[in-house]
Specification:
The complex is a heterodimer. Chain A is mainly alpha-helical. Chain A is 60% helix and 4% strand. In chain A, helix 8 (141-157) runs parallel beside helix 10. In chain B, 22% of the residues lie in helices and 37% in strands. The chains are: A mainly alpha, B alpha/beta.
C-alpha cells in the first residue's frame, strides 16, 4: 500500500530562491525537502527575507522567519505543515541541534559537495579548504580521495591549473580512480600546452591576474 | 433583499414547461406554466424564461437555474445550458436534476408531518400515469429517504372527457387504492395536465382517506427552486436522500501526515455529474495510490488502487501527485493520478495513471 501525505499547500508561480545555493523553491514541501537534504546549506542561510510572505502564498502561514537562527526557522517551518511526521520531526531537530558538533572536516566536506552540485565553485572551494585544513590523517581513504579530487575540479573551474595538478595527484595517491587519472592527464596536457586551451602559449600576466581575482574573491 | 440571489426552477417537458422562482432567503415561490411550440427548442425555452422573469421579477437575472428535463441526453442538456448562459440565465450555476430529486426537495420543504411516512406523487400527462414514491428504505436509519419512479401504465382516453371521465376515475381509484394500501402514506401529490377537467370523484375519496392530498402543476419546478435555495445557503440536510443520480459514497484517501485520517475528495449526496474533486498529495512511499470509497450511512468501505509503478523513480517524499475522482453514473467512475513533479528537484513528467471503478 502506498503512503500519502495530503497537502493543501499551493504551488506558487514564482519561486523563492535560496540565497546560498540559488535553488528555486515553488512549494512548502520543496522547502521541507531542501532543509532535510541540504542541511549544510540551510545552516549557512543567516537571513530568509521574503520567506514569511512566500509561506503565506504557499498557504502555510508562519510568523517572522526573517531573522531567526537557521535552527529556529527550520523548527517553525516544520511545525507549520504535515510534511514531516512526529518521529521524523524529532529526528530532524536532534540532527540539527547536533549539527555543529559534527567534526569540521566531515561537515565542511558535505557542505562543499552541496555547493559543488549547485555549481557554486567559490563556496565549494572555501568549504573544501576548511575540510582539508581540519584533516587529521585517520580518515577513510575514499573520503580523502573524494575531497582532493573535488578540490582539483574546482581549481580547474578557476583555471587554477597548478593547484589542480597537485590535488589530482594527491587524490590518486589516496585512491587510483579513472576520474582522477583523466583529470591529472588533462592538467598535464594543459601544462605542456603552456596552460592554454588552444595550444598557444598563455599570457603569464593574464594568468596571474586571474589568480589574483580568484584569491581576492576568496578573501 | 437586493443582495439575495434569484433562483429559477424549471421542469421542461415535451410541449410544456413549468417555471418557478424564488429568492434564496424567502420561502415564497412564484409559479407559471408555459406551452412550448417546438420540441425542446433551447431558444424558445430561454425566451419563455426571460418572459417569466420580466413579468415576475422586473427582469432581474436568475443567478441559479435548476431544471429537470427527462428523456434528454446529458450532451443535449449541455447544449441547452450553453444557450441559457448566453441568455444571461444561471450565470452562477446551472444544474440538471432528476424529477425524483425535485420531488424530494419539494416534499422535504413542507411540514414534517407530510413526509413522516411514505409520500406518493402521481404525474399524469393525459396519456401516461407515473408514480413517485419517497420512502424510508431502512427502518434503523430514520433519516434516510429513498425515491423512485415507476410508470404505472397507459391511461389514454379515447373519447370525450365527460363520457370517459367516470371510467378514468374508476380506473385511477383502483390503481391508487392498490398503491396506497401497501403502506402508510402521509401525503399524496398530483401533478400534470391530465388531472385537470374535474373528472376525479371516486379517486379523490381514495386519495384523501386518512391523509392529505395536494394538486398543482409546479411540483417539480418548485422542487428545483428549493434545491437551488439549498445550494445558495450551503444547506446541509440531515437526511440522506437517494435519488437515481445521487452518489452514496464519499471518496478520499488516508492521510499518513494526519495520523492516517480519512480526507475526502468527493462528498456523498451529490448528483454523479457534479460529484468530482481532486486532491494533492506527496507520495511518501509505495507504488500505488489507494482511493477509499465509504458508504455515507453503512460506512462500508471499498478500496480502489491505482498502480503508479510506471512513475519515474525518485527519492522518498519527493513527488507531488494530483488525484482526481469523477463519476460516470452513481456507481462507477474514474480515478486519475497525475504526476505534478517537485519543482526544480524533479520537473513534472505529466504522466497520467487511470483506473476505472465500479462501486458494489
Amino acid at each position: 500500500m502506498g503512503r500519502l501525505i495530503v497537502t493543501s499547500s499551493v504551488v506558487s508561480e514564482t519561486p523563492f530562491y535560496m540565497k546560498k545555493s540559488g535553488h528555486p523553491l515553488y512549494s512548502y514541501e520543496e522547502l521541507c525537502y531542501y532543509i532535510r537534504t541540504r542541511m549544510g546549506l540551510w545552516m549557512e542561510e543567516m537571513t530568509r527575507e521574503g520567506l514569511t510572505e512566500k509561506m503565506q502564498e504557499w498557504n502555510v502561514p508562519v510568523k517572522d522567519l526573517d531573522f531567526l537562527s537557521p535552527l529556529e526557522a527550520a523548527e517553525r517551518i516544520m511545525e507549520a505543515g504535515t510534511y514531516f511526521g512526529t518521529d521524523e520531526k524529532e529526528q530532524m531537530f536532534q540532527y540539527m541541534q547536533e549539527y555543529d558538533q559534527i567534526e569540521e572536516r566531515f561537515r565542511e566536506k558535505e557542505k562543499g559537495d552541496l555547493y559543488f552540485d549547485y555549481g557554486k565553485s567559490r563556496g565549494a572551494y572555501l568549504a573544501y579548504w576548511k575540510a582539508v585544513s581540519a584533516l587529521q590523517g585517520d580518515e577513510d581513504k575514499d573520503f580523502r580521495a573524494s575531497l582532493y579530487h573535488n578540490m582539483a575540479v574546482i581549481c580547474c573551474r578557476f583555471f587554477y591549473w597548478k593547484e589542480a595538478k597537485n590535488w589530482f595527484a594527491l587524490a590518486l595517491n589516496e585512491k587510483d580512480t579513472e576520474e582522477s587519472r583523466i583529470g591529472l592527464e588533462l592538467v598535464i596536457d594543459m601544462e605542456k600546452k603552456g596552460w592554454s586551451m588552444d595550444g598557444k602559449p598563455a599570457d603569464p600576466e593574464k594568468l596571474h591576474r586571474h589568480e589574483e581575482t580568484f584569491l581576492a574573491e576568496l578573501e | 433583499m437586493i443582495n439575495s440571489k434569484l433562483i429559477l426552477g424549471a421542469d421542461i417537458r415535451e410541449n410544456q414547461m413549468s417555471l418557478s422562482c424564488c429568492l434564496e432567503n424567502q420561502t415564497e415561490i412564484i409559479n407559471e406554466n408555459f406551452i412550448l411550440e417546438k420540441y425542446r427548442d433551447a431558444d424558445e425555452i430561454a425566451g419563455k424564461m426571460k418572459e417569466f422573469l420580466n413579468k415576475n421579477q422586473a427582469g432581474r437575472k436568475a443567478a441559479f437555474l435548476i431544471y429537470s428535463c427527462e428523456n434528454d441526453s446529458r450532451s443535449q442538456c449541455k447544449k441547452m445550458e450553453q444557450c441559457f448562459k448566453q441568455a444571461g440565465i444561471g450565470e452562477e450555476g446551472i444544474r440538471l436534476i432528476s424529477k425524483e430529486n425535485a420531488f424530494v426537495h419539494y416534499v422535504m420543504h413542507q411540514n414534517e408531518e407530510l413526509y413522516r411516512y411514505t409520500v406518493i406523487a402521481f404525474e399524469f400527462n393525459g396519456t401516461e400515469l407515473a408514480g413517485y414514491r419517497l420512502y424510508s428504505p431502512n427502518r434503523k436509519i430514520s433519516k434516510e429517504r429513498k425515491t423512485e419512479k415507476q410508470v404505472i401504465g397507459n391511461f389514454q382516453l379515447n373519447g370525450n372527457l365527460s363520457d370517459m371521465g367516470n371510467i378514468l376515475d374508476s380506473k385511477f381509484a383502483d390503481v391508487a387504492k392498490q398503491i396506497l394500501s401497501r403502506e402508510v402514506v402521509s401525503s399524496v401529490f398530483l401533478t400534470g395536465q391530465g388531472f385537470e377537467g374535474g373528472w376525479m370523484q371516486k379517486s379523490l375519496k381514495v386519495l384523501c382517506d386518512g391523509r392529505r392530498a395536494f394538486s398543482g402543476q409546479n411540483l417539480f419546478s418548485a422542487g428545483c427552486c428549493y434545491y437551488g435555495a439549498g445550494i445558495c445557503k450551503e444547506e446541509k440536510t440531515e437526511y440522506l436522500i437517494q435519488a437515481p443520480e445521487t452518489v452514496l459514497y464519499e471518496s478520499g484517501v488516508i492521510d499518513s501526515g494526519a495520523n492516517d485520517s480519512f480526507i475526502k475528495i468527493t462528498e456523498a449526496g451529490n448528483a454523479w455529474y457534479e460529484s468530482k474533486g481532486n486532491i494533492d498529495v506527496i507520495l511518501e512511499r509505495g507504488n500505488r495510490v489507494d482511493v477509499v470509497f465509504v458508504h455515507s450511512h453503512t460506512l462500508e468501505k471499498q478500496v480502489e488502487s491505482v498502480d503508479i509503478s510506471g512513475l519515474s523513480a525518485r527519492p522518498k517524499k519527493m513527488g507531488r501527485l494530483r488525484i482526481s475522482v469523477e463519476f460516470f453514473d452513481r456507481d462507477s467512475g474514474i480515478i486519475l493520478v497525475k504526476d505534478k513533479g517537485f519543482g526544480a528537484f524533479s520537473p513534472s513528467t505529466n504522466q497520467l495513471f487511470i483506473k476505472d471503478f465500479k462501486l458494489l
